[in-house]
Fold:
Amino acid sequence: MNRPTGSRRRDSGPTDSQARTADAVSAIRADGLGVSTGDFTLLSPTDISLDIGHNLVIGGDNGSGKTTLLSALTGLLSPTQGTVTVCGLAPDDRKSEFRAAVTGLIGRAPISRELTVAEHLVAIAMSWSLREPHTAAMRQLEELEIDFLAERFAHELSSGQTQLMQLAMVLVRPAQLLVLDEPEQRLDSTRLDLLITVLEKRSQNGTTLVLASHSQKVIDRLGEEYLPLTRDATGLS
Ligand SMILES: Nc1ncnc2c1ncn2[C@@H]1O[C@H](COP(=O)(O)OP(=O)(O)OP(=O)(O)O)[C@@H](O)[C@H]1O
Structure:
């Protein structure tokens, strides 16, 4: 059974309003959540109890089930055993109530060759009815220090710049809970420090972060709760 290895909560804890909300609903409640296909285990049974306003980093070796777990938490994949709620809802990425509460980056988000970097973010900001979508888009690009790429087409970027753009596409819209799969991918150490600072700010503003990561820096700075996944014997091939 996978379980978090104990709490490393911030001294300050959640704000009063977060605590009140947490009384009513958890960020994540998973009991024996598992995924298997035939006799092969993708994710061994996993328990998670995470309060709103706290962060979870999921670690573990390659193939231990991190992406599978994030996919189950975001409704991209259905668990084959156990139960799970996220922000009090059954994960279903086609339900507008769930999409309003939970967003994330798992793998690559689709991009259009017809749109510039800024236009991708403006489209997302408009779809979430942000009042000044262009301003919101530019602010987000500035926060990740890629505003100089605003007028480039999205397919004209380096791999690290593409990663930052994809993170910006997720960060530009509001969400209670943010799920990121190995956000450190393809980032140099300066950009990784910047990303961690941006995520710390989101966390301080009340967003719950759920990250999978191989980066010790991410684990140390964002992993209030740490869940190292292990593969079940039946998962070894
Ligand atoms: N579509 C699939 N069908 C069958 N098995 C799969 C599928 N996707 C992943 N797996 C297997 O499930 C297990 C967990 O994969 P997963 O991608 O969740 O691991 P991970 O911890 O995210 O790995 P990494 O650190 O390499 O990203 C692996 O053994 C993998 O080979």
In short: The first helix runs from residue 16 to 24. The longest strand covers residues 40-50.
